[in-house]
Amino acid sequence: MIHYITGGERSGKSSFAQNLALTLSQAPKYVATSRIWGGNHRSRIDRHIADRDHRWTSVEEEKNLSKVIQVKDVVVIDCVTLWLTNFFVDTNYDIEKSLELAKNEFDKLLSIDATILIISNEIGMGVHAQTEKGRQFTELQGWMNQHIAQHAHKATVMISGIPLTLK
Question: Which residue, 6, 26, 42, 48, is most buried by CB atoms nearer than 10 A?
Answer without folding.
Answer: 6
